[in-house]
Design a protein that fits this description.
Radius of gyration: 22 Å
CATH class of the largest domain: Mainly Alpha
Distance between the termini: 66 Å
Number of strands: 2
Strand order of the largest sheet: 1-2
Structural class: mainly alpha
Shape: elongated
Order of helices and strands: HEHHHHEHHHH
Mean pLDDT: 81
Helix content: 40-55%
Number of helices: 9
Length: about 160
């Protein structure tokens, strides 16, 4: 038993030393995984009103036809509109997955609560509070209100989704 522990320790040490010399490693997806399927879900999403067909096609399971459908219903004024229009072609689960990659720009004084709730870190209840607090005199006033409702991180994310 002691002998196995020593072997494991030595093997681990050799592995760690060999990795330390190489610096940060880039790992490519296995060849059978399409690159678009590996796109990370981040705060940065495609604006449904301005993204190109090529940008839409980086979203998992979006090909030429779905990119065309995304484009056909522009301009989107709410995320609910997007859900209804795209829901004609795919189920709710698929639409929800698309929402991880796309957004409808937020008009601080006009967008519905569900559209405002697209801001990462903000839930529907918080979005409803913001809608009830309208009108906002400026984007800065809106960001301050987001900070009060959901914190500073949500306010930073809001800047990515608000139409200027």
């Amino acid at each position: 038993m002691k002998r196995i522990a020593i072997i494991v320790t030595l093997t681990t040490s050799v592995f760690l030393v060999s990795c330390a010399d190489k610096g940060p490693q880039k790992f490519d997806p296995p060849p059978e995984v399409e690159e678009s399927a590996t796109r990370p879900i981040t705060a940065e999403k495609w604006n449904l009103n301005t993204a190109t067909a090529e940008e839409f096609k980086t979203v998992p399971e979006v090909g030429d036809r779905m990119a065309h459908e995304f484009d056909e219903y522009r301009p989107y004024i709410s995320i609910v509109q997007f859900r209804l229009e795209i829901g004609k072609y795919v189920d709710e689960e698929q639409v929800a997955m698309f929402e991880n990659y796309v957004y409808v720009p937020i008009d601080i004084n006009e967008s519905d609560a569900e559209t405002v709730a697209q801001i990462l870190g903000l839930d529907l209840e918080g979005a409803q509070q913001l809608v009830a607090a309208r009108p906002f005199e400026s984007h800065a006033a809106f960001y301050d209100a987001v900070t009060e409702v959901a914190g500073g991180i949500a306010s930073q994310f809001a800047r990515l989704y608000v139409s200027e």
